[in-house]
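Person: Please work through this fold.
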Amino acid sequence: MARPDKAAAVAELTDKFRSSNAAVLTEYRGLTVAQLKTLRRSLGENAQYAVVKNTLTKIAAKEAGITLEDQLFAGPTAVAFVTGDPVESAKGLRDFAKDNPNLVIKGGVLEGKALSADEIKKLADLESREVLLSKLAGAFKGKQSQAAQLFQALPSKLVRTVDALRAKQAEQGGAE
């Protein structure tokens, strides 16, 4: 009877690995239920934090085509499955871990590539996708305004040059 339950759990975890942009494995030993609830809220709407069984998670990751080191599955494990911006969720985990040292980030996966705990912390230090996109848009806008100024300057410079040539011809014609 436990066999179909385990198969269903593996299938569900496999589906979560496949449908997620990222997954972060953590150790939650020593956290209270209230702290876990706070952690789930801090991750945002685009992440689902689930306590999982190590063996079933290892099997599900393998079935999803993800290779994770065995050391990630030592101790009690919970996984944050991220369907939105991985940077936002990594920041949520990092900030929660600062306030609650019992939460340990073990490692994870980003778009099929295994990440160490240090790489996840570096990911958390990145600015969010929205901030990076707004900076890119600002850079493009700046370049466009520079190009517009250049294109406006060319005709006015041409007009001034033609006027200067006419004035010079008029002086030369009047001097003769």
In short: Residues 39 and 96 are 7 Å apart (CA to CA). The radius of gyration is 29 Å. The beta strands are 22-27, 47-52, 77-82, 104-110, 113-116. The chain has six helices and five strands.
